[in-house]
């Protein structure tokens, strides 16, 4: 059997990670013990949250430790099994890590069906990012028909789904994304009502133009300046959903707090954080509804697929540079 | 009849207001038209919100215009009436402004009874600050028995009532105040479980000590550093009530945003603003319940009373210097 290439955390990054924080190792695949299975990972998920897992801080999940395989979601095939619950040949989603093969007792892994959807989609729209969009928007943001919904990171794995679900729910949807291509994509392909290019537009002016009655729901993936602009334009009783803050994750100083937070007072508004794991019992429900929308064409899914586990670092950097559209995925090998 | 001394806004302040922003004028009292009443103001309310009304900005209430009498709550006696709904000799609460006499058609004024409570209390515990504490804590903060409630500005008109109501509701209550005298007062006199002196204590360390299980409700009157410390110590599903941000009101630069706002995400917490006016239909209900608590000794009310309308500016500055305890009130004349 071939060897297992693994990407391990060599040291903690300061600011934007460089390649020296990883060790790429080639190791033997352990012999399976009773109850274990061997998964050949086919696709690895790249998510902004990974940057947080590199910091030695108390958070919603423990940090990745130095010397550990980098944590990542993956989909793969069971190629050997000493566990009666998992059959060889089936496909699973789980936290497989950045490695070619994962040995596990199967806890936390769930079956996925490549005949129903392409495997990478189980890491995106039919996986964590999709669930994050679904529950964050519907349960925390509580959009009502006719509301104006603003979403940042709007061409990304989460933001693109947030905007489309908001459209399905009868909202006016404005997306913020970087560059003309992404802006064109979310309006022309995904049906957003308007797009703001944060790299080229006057965000304040465009928000005024596209959200004339104010913002009822702001789904924030980015933090920083854009969060402040959105706060300045809230409608009464607005809901601000804090999903992430990718503009701040590589800061070496204290994160930038939203200066305009007193807009919450003036507008009797709410800012609320959430973590998708809390909804795990309802993932099935969300997957079923989103699969229906995918089938009838109301929901579109896009994946950016890089190839080769040895390219993990350069793919990882695309989370921050924005050089990708939709869900970022690494195909483990050709 | 005597003349009417009025304090008008002469110009907009930059930073901490100095005396030059006011014009003190002595004017004739206008002759009453049909439907109008003349109120002799006895006590004028001083509130942190006044600083916001001086800025030319869109907010929950229009700014005071240059040349207008400074807006302020007041209690006074009807000394002449051409309105059948208001009898001479009765006492009213309303937005009388910083002046000795107010002429009004009576809209927005409500009767108060000096036999039931001292007049200044209708500007504090039985007035806006009391209602702010009552609805902000109970309706927005939603404290549950056994919760840890933290309140800043804890020796002030709002904070002191927030802490006492939280105690009545069976919460563990920690107050943040400036200086040993205020800290001693809220613990010894008001029954808070603990006090943190933000001028002398290590806030982070004390929060760890006094809120070992985290903060379930944080009622914020101050913003700035203290808000950040509180965010860093939230319990899961915590509620942060944004009532004010007195530490930021005299800033000449952009207000300081809460750097630790991503704690809302990690802890699935909510930060929500409110404005007491939205509860106006329920003021009677709150006044009745708080009057009961005052009567049975579970709620204590304190007023700091300065004297003389000509001293308005120096009294106003005490809102920011903290040289007062409880509700700040100006007695119009001896």
In short:
The structure is a homodimer of 334-residue chains. With 334 residues, the first copy, chain A, is α/β, with parallel strands linked by helices.
What would you say this structure looks like, in words?
Two copies of one chain form a homodimer. In chain A, strands 3, 4, 5, 6, 7, 14 and 15 form a seven-stranded mixed sheet that branches. The first copy, chain A, has a six-stranded parallel sheet with strand order 10-9-8-11-12-13, with helices on both faces. Chain A has a two-stranded antiparallel ribbon with strand order 1-2. Chain A is globular, with a radius of gyration of 20 Å. The first copy, chain A, folds into two domains: about 5-125 and about 300-330, Quinone Oxidoreductase, Chain A, domain 1 (Alpha-Beta Complex), CATH 3.90.180; about 130-275, NAD(P)-binding Rossmann-like Domain (Rossmann fold, 3-Layer(aba) Sandwich). The model of chain A has no long low-confidence stretch (mean pLDDT about 95). In chain A, helix 2 (about 130-140) crosses helix 3 (about 160-170) and helix 2 (about 130-140) packs across helix 8. The first copy, chain A, starts with a strand and ends with a strand. In chain A, strand 9, helix 4 and strand 10 (about 195) form a beta-alpha-beta unit. Helices cover about 25% and strands about 25% of the residues of chain A. Chain A is built from nine helices and 15 strands. Chain A is of the alpha/beta class. The longest helix of chain A is centred in the middle third of the chain and has 14 residues, at about 130-140. At the A-B interface, helix 7 and strand 13 of A face helix 7 and strand 13 of B. Strand 13 of chain A pairs antiparallel with strand 13 (about 270-275) of chain B, so a sheet runs across the interface.
